[in-house]
Specification:
Blueprint (H helix, E strand, L loop, with lengths): L1 H27 L7 H18 L5 H20 L7 H21 L1 H4 L5 E2 L7 H24 L1 H11 L1 H6 L4 H27 L1 E2 L6 H14 L4 H20 L9 H21 L1
Antiparallel strand pairs: 1-2
Length: 277
């Protein structure tokens, strides 16, 4: 039972990083992005490629490269989509996620194709790994809270509320939105690194569009722009999605049930908010 709780805590922490990155992009900046799974995949494969070729590299060194790779790809998706808003941005980011997944599936020499890459590392002690995951989560959360209180954080919120008004007072909105994408992508890439380290592999099928939608559900459930709410939303969704699998009920409960439950949660939340307003 204690091993199960540790495993659930590890999953909770990794998904919490994804939700925090999503909340910065969508909740704080107002950009509807659906490619967190792609950023997570970039972090996982950066980790897998580096450690499979250089197994004696320190995790700190690998982590630096993971953050850089996530930020670079965040900028690559951010620059061409800066002029897009709402549904158009969501479609473009979803397309980017599918491109990343197909590259991972077909670039056999680099990514191992459908079989992915196995890491030449020993399994971690779950207690120590849980502590490492939540240390990263706490550091990221503290950094985002400090960013929220800064001039940059207020600028992101101004863009979310009214981008034209923000531009009229001299705010460089493309720079702010690009930075939000870079930081959010880097956070998700760190989640990918932790996922790859814990599972000892990086497999492309893990990082599909369903994961991005699930992360968005976490953020919406916890409240857009509320970082602590993201943790609550993550906890609820992780319990719903992972508990049956970890308890061995996945063969009994169809996978579609998770999506139905996500839909019920989102619809209920929208109805409740409309009643309050």
């Amino acid at each position: 039972m204690s091993s199960f709780i540790l495993l659930l805590g590890i999953y909770f922490g990794i998904y919490a990083l994804l939700a925090l990155g999503q909340n910065l992009i969508t909740g704080k900046t107002g950009l509807l992005s659906l490619c967190q799974a792609a950023f997570m995949a970039i972090g996982a494969y950066t980790t897998a490629i580096l450690l499979s070729r250089h197994p004696h590299l320190s995790f700190v060194y690998v982590g630096v490269w993971v953050i850089l790779s996530g930020a670079i790809f965040g900028l690559l998706i951010g620059i061409p989509t800066l002029r897009l808003k709402g549904d158009y941005l969501a479609i473009a980011s979803l397309g980017f996620g599918e491109i990343v997944k197909n590259v991972l599936l077909n670039a056999d020499t680099l990514t191992g194709g459908p079989m992915g890459i196995s890491l030449p590392i020993k399994s971690f002690d779950k207690g120590l790994f849980l502590g490492m995951v939540w240390l990263v989560v706490c550091l990221v959360l503290l950094g985002l809270i400090q960013l929220q209180r800064s001039h940059w954080g207020r600028g992101l919120e101004a863009i979310r509320e009214d981008e034209l008004a923000a531009q009229s007072v001299g705010l460089n909105t493309p720079l702010y939105k690009g930075a939000a994408f870079m930081i959010g992508a880097a956070i998700s890439a760190m989640a990918g690194m932790l996922w790859a380290l814990y599972h000892g592999s990086a497999i492309p099928q893990t990082f599909d569009s369903t994961l991005s939608i699930m992360v968005l559900c976490m953020v919406v459930l916890g409240g857009l722009g509320n970082y602590y709410g993201s943790l609550f939303g993550t906890m609820v969704i992780v319990v719903i999605s992972e508990l049956p699998r970890l308890l061995g009920f996945s063969a009994i409960i169809p996978a579609a049930v998770n999506q139905i439950l996500f839909g019920i949660i989102l619809v209920s939340l929208v109805i409740l908010r409309q009643k309050k307003s």
